[in-house]
Every structure is written in structure tokens, then in C-alpha cells.
Amino acid sequence: MERGKMAELESLETAAEHERILREIESTDTACIGPTLRSVYDGEEHGRFMEKLEARIRNHDREIEKMCNFHYQGFVDSITELLKVRGEAQKLKNQVTDTNRKLQNEGKELIIAMEELKQCRLQQRNISATVDKLTLCLPVLEMYSKLREQMKSKRHYPALKTLEHLEHTYLPQVSHYRFCKIMVDNIPKLREEIKEVSMSDLKDFLESIRKHSDKIGETAMKQAQQQRNLDSIVSQHPRISGGKKSKKEVCASSDLEVKNTSPMSEQDSGILDVEDEDEDEEVPGAQDLVDFSPVYRCLHIYSVLGARETFESYYRKQRRKQARLVLQPPSNMHETLDGYRKYFNQIVGFFVVEDHILHTTQGLVNRAYIDELWEMALSKTIAALRTHSSYCSDPSLVLDLKNLIVLFADTLQGYGFPVNQLFDMLLEIQDQYSETLLKKWSGVFRNILDSDNYSPIPVTNEEVYKKIVGQFPFQDAELEKQPFPKKFPFSEFVPKVYNQIKEFIYACLKFSEDLHLSSTEVDDMIRKSTNLLLTRTLSNCLQNVIKRKNVGLTELVQIIINTTHLEKSCKFLEEFITNITNVLPETVHTTKLYGTTTFKDARHAAEEEIYTNLNQKIDQFLQLADYDWMAMEPGSKASDYLVDLIGFLRSTFAVFTHLPGDVDVHSTMSGKVAQTACMSACKHLSTSLMQLLLEAEVRQLTLGALQQFNLDVEECEQFARSGPVPGFQGDTLQLAFIDLRQLLDLFIQWDWSTYLADYGQPTCKYLRVNPTTALILLEKMRDTSRKNNVFAQFRKNERDKQKLIDTVAKQLRSLINSHHS
User: Fold this and answer.
1) Any bridge partners for residue 486, and if so which?
2) pTM (global) more than 0.85
3) Where are the coiled-coil regions (predicted)?
């Protein structure tokens, strides 16, 4: 039973499921029926479902048949009505066909006219559209054509402006056309081409100004020179200054002209041709020689293209390279002034261009960049000038170089560059200039001194006298009163040396011009240089002349005279310097001239040389002495050599009468020099004779020889008493021979008792006789006595004399020993 119930329940559930599936199939779209059918096939009741499905289909067919049978009569009636309408419709169709045929026949011409009108309207519309499009395209094409024309004629800045209008104004309106796309693609290429061409023009400009920097600088320095000349004229004649333009006005007008020059200028880069003009015509401005339009164009082009920084960097880099080339001096620059001039011209030309660029462009170069370049240029220029000027030995070239440096500095100072270091460097060159002057004047002085005849200058008429007095400040009332012909006391080298000293002072003054130095500084510089000339150059030349081997006593005497007069002229040199510098010698810190010391030293050297030469001459005469130290009897007169020597001394001291004796300044000069020379000669003669008597080679001497020697000494004493040089008081000159006189008197008179008794007392008759000297001479006479056989018949007397000599010698030794103890 239970199984039966279970089977019954299952069949009921299956039936309900099949019913649900059928309803779902009926209500579901056929496209989505797949899952429903899959559930049927997935089950196990497929056969029963099919039976169920067929039963449902049959039920639906029966319902459809019932519905058709219900509506069939109405369908038949409708068909009957439709058949009736078909006949009427056929009639209507025929009528419509006829009407249409008639209408077609009647409207054929209208259709043709309408077609023609349609075509006309279409053409009119196309033409209008074409005109509109061409109206938009033609300006583009015209602008592009203008652009190509400007590019062809190298008007790059206008071309760039045209390109900007074309790109931003015209092309956007016709951007859908193919030719516009081609133009748009070409615009970057055109911009790059403009950049390249403008940069090429800039490079040509830079190369051109590099080659022509010296021309630009030369013109700028000519302008500066003209301005200096104008300022000099105006300072002398202030009233005529109204008709000239100042340098600043000239530069301002030049700058205005350049500023008014449009960057659209059609001129190419380079230096404008300027023909050589006469000196009377105005020199063109330095900026007038240069066409700066390539720089302006290139700057504007790069600014518009947004590459201004690139352009500025390139320009500054190239100009720095050019600056280094300009500042590199040629190796032979020091040989000629033109070498320095070309070097300065290039530097000035470079900075004139940069200064103009600074003032006519906005930021292409700035003051810091210019100052940096100038600092580099200043250091390199000063280093080059120091090196090359050191090779220069010609003072004229150094002076020309100084003037050129001053012009160079003034030119650049006119453009606002600081040049103090250049003027400081000129003070260094001034020391070198002084050295070259000293070398030159050393040769001048040597030539003057070598060519001088060292004789007083003879004058035969008033004209010659005034000429010499005009050359050298000399005043002597006694000489003026003397009739012609007469002689100046000095030789020709005095006025020549004096004038050369003045020329040297003028040469020093020339260097100080335009150095912006105060009068005190100029005065100090001239005085220091003049002191070097006097104390070093002239002093050395005078010393060399004095020390020459072949210089004679007459020349030395004349040198003393000359230096005395030159010494007196030093005060006139002081006045001369004061007059040209307007600085009084009493001013604080004023350097004094050392000329007095120089000439005094020279005079003293000449005096010493006179004394030395006299002594050398005396020695030469003494070398001729030929004494017979064994002579038994003296001669009747003095030795020949001594007579000649005394004659020489007399003639020599006669020369000293020419020495200067100015009452005011040198009242004792003549007596002093002559007396000193005479006393020196007598002392030297006395000393030499004493040495001759005591020399070791004279081992023996006789009383006769000693008496002959006494005759010579008496000749010397006679010379001393004769007063060869005035001014000696009493027997002062004879005292030079007192040692010899007392020694000879002691031996000839054989007054040993007096000598030995009074020795050491102030009133001793033989106070000047030294015991040692007496012993030496006595030993020589004792040896002679021992070996002499002439007194053989008087042996007792000989023995007595020998004993006396031995006794005296013993006592002399005792005196010597006691003196030493």
C-alpha cells in the first residue's frame, strides 16, 4: 500500500513539474527556451513529458479550429467585398495612369528648367563657397610668398615677424587644408634657418670687428687726442670754446644716431668703409665705423624665438675669446712704437665696441661683464707692458711709450673705464725711464769729458764771452774788466755739463707731463732723478777721468777748477728746478740736490790723485839715484837726479797758481791745495830719502858718501826755504826734512855726547833722531871702518875711533832696550 502511495505521489509531482515546464514554454521566448528543455532532458521522465506535450498541442489545435470556425463567415464577406473593390481600384488605377501620363508630358519642360535651375543654384553655391575659401587662403599664400621673398632678400627680422603673423593669425583659419599642413610643418625649419642665417651674420660681424679693432681703436684714440688738444686750447683761450663739441656731446650724438637705427636695417654686418680724411677734417666717431645692425637683428631674432640666453652666452663667450687674442702682445712689440700703438689700438677698439653694445642693447652685456673683462685686460696689459718695456733702452722710445699709454688711458677713461692702475704703472716705468736717461747721459758725459782739452776757455770778443756766460752762470768782475783776449778759469766741459744737466731735467719733466701729478710730486721726482745723475752718473764719469792712467797734473788741476765752478752752480740748478715746478725749496719734504757733495768728492779725488801722482813722479826720479856709498870724498854739488827732481817740483807747483781763489767762497782753496800738495811731496821725498839711506842693500857707507847725501838734503831744504808755494808760515815746509837734517848733523858733526846726554829731553838738539835709526846707520859706518885700509898708518887713531863707535853703539842699544822696557 505504501509503495502504491509513494508511486502515486511521485507521479503527481512529475505531472506538476511537466505542467510547469509547459507553461514556461508557452510563456517564454523561443530564444530562451534552451534551459527549460535542458531540465526536461536532464530528468528521467522524458517519454511522459513528450506525451504531455503532444496532448497540449492537440488541445491548442482544437481551440484554433474552433476560433477559425467562429470567424469564417466574416472572412468570406470580407473577401467578397475585396473582390468588388478590386474592380473599382483597377478603374482608379487606369485613371491615375492616364492622369500621370498627361502630367508627365506637361511637366517635362518644367523638370528640365528645374534641373537647370538646380545646377545653377549648385554652381552658385560652389562658387560662393570657393570665393569664401579663397578669401581665407589668399592672405595666407600672400604672407607665405612675402615670407619667402624676405628670406631671399635676407631680411630676417621682418621675415620672422611675418612668420609669427602667418602662424598665429592666418594658418589657424585654414588649418584643414593640406597645403596649410605643409606650411605648418615648414615653420620650425624656417625658424631654424632664420636662426642659422642670423648667427652666420653675427659671426661675420664678430670676425670683422676682430680684424678692424685696431682701426676702431686708432679712431677712438685720435678723437681722444683731438679732445685733449681742444681742452688745451680752451684752457689757454676760454672764449673760443663755444664753436666746438665736447667729446661727450660727440659720443652722445653718435649714440643717438645708432639708437635711431632700426634693427630692421637692411645693411649687412661689417665695418663701414671710411676714406682717409685730411687732418683738418673732423675724425669720424669710432661708432660711426661700425654697423651694429647684425648684432641688433640677431638679438631681436633670438629674443623673439625665446633663445635670448643662448645668444647672450654665445656672444659673451666669443668676445671673451677675442679679448684674450687681443690682449696677447706680439713678441717683438718692444722693438718699435708702432708695435705698442697697434696693441693699444686693438684693446681700445675692443672696449669701444663693448661699451657701445652695453649702452645700445638691453642686457646683451652688463656692467659686471664689462668690468670683469676690463679687470682681465688691465692685469694682462700691465703685465705685458712691464715685460716689454723692460727691454727698452732708448729713453726717447720710453717717453713716446709713456705718451702713448697716457693717451690709451685717457681714451678708455673717456668711456668710463678706471685707469688708475695704468698711471701707477707709469710711475714704475718712470724709474726705468730714469735709468735709461742715466745710461744715455753717462755716454754724453763721457764724450764731453773725453773730448775736453782741460784748458781754460779763451775768448777773443764780447759775443763769445756773452755766449759762454749765457750757457753757464758765471760772474767775475775782475775778468769782465780785463781786455780781450782773455780766458775763463774753467774748460769747455763746465758749460757743456751744466747744460746737459738742464737737458736731463727737461727730459725728466717731459715724462711727468699728463700723469696727473701734483707740482710737489713732479718736483720730488725731478730732484731725485737729478740727484742720481749727479751722485752716480756724473760722479762715476769724473772719477773715471781722474783715475785714468794717462791723466796729467795739469788736467787734474783743471778738473779741480771745473768742479769748483760746477759746485757753485748747484744753487742755480736749484732755482732752475724751482722755476719749472713752482715748488719752493723751503717747502716741507722738498728733496735737496746733492750736487755740492758730488763735486766736492770729485775735487777731493782729484786732489788725492795729484798727491799720488806727485809721489809717483818723485819715486821715478829716486829710481835714478846712484850713490857711491863707499866714496871717500863728497862731490862739489848735489846729485843730478835730485836737481832734476827739484826742477820738476818747482815747475809743477807753478801750475797751482791757476787754482780758483774766489774771495767769497774759495778764498783758501788755492793755498790749501797747493800747500797740501807741496807738503805731501816734501814729506814723501824726505821719507823716501831716509829709506834710501837705511835700506838693507846698503851694507856699508862712508862719511864721504854721507856728506854727499847731505848735499842733496841741503838742496831739498833750499827748495823748501824758497817758498815754492806761498802761504807757509816760517820754516813749516822745512820741517818735512827735520828728521834727515838732525840725523845727518849728528853723524857729520859726530856729536854723540850731546845726543846721548840730552836724549829724551824736550829741548834735545837731536830730538827727531830715533836711536834705532842711528844704530842702523852707525853699524854700516863701523863695518866700513873695520875693512878700510886707508888709515893703516894711523892705526892708533883708527882703533880709538872704532872703540868710540863701539861705545856709542853700546849706549844706543842701551837706550833702545830701556825704551822698549
Assistant:
1) 459
2) no
3) 50-120
